[in-house]
Amino acid sequence: MHDGAGERSGDAGYTLDLGDDEAAKVVHVVGLGPDDHVIGSRDVVGLGHAGDLADAEGHVGCLPDLGLDENVCLHHEVLHGGGCHGKRYSRAFAGGPAAGQDPAGFPPAKNWAVRQEDVITVAELGEFGLIAAIRELLPAADAILVGAGDDAAVVAAPDGRVVASTDLLVEGRHFRRDWAGPVDVGAKAAAQNLADIAAMGAVPTALLAGVAVPGDLSAEWVLDLIRGMVAECARAGAAVAGGDISSADEVMLGITALGSLGARPPVTRSGARPGDLVAVNGRVGWAAAGLALLQAGLSGADLGTELGELVAAHVRPRPDYRAGPEAAMAGATAMIDVSDGLVADLRHIATGSRVCVDVQSASLAASPAVTAAARLLGVDWLDWALAGGEDHALAATFSPKTMLPDGWVVVGTVREGAGVLVDSAARRAAAGWDHFR
Question: 3.90.650.10, 3.40.50.720, 3.90.1010.10, 3.90.960.10: which CATH number matches 277-422?
Answer without folding.
Answer: 3.90.650.10
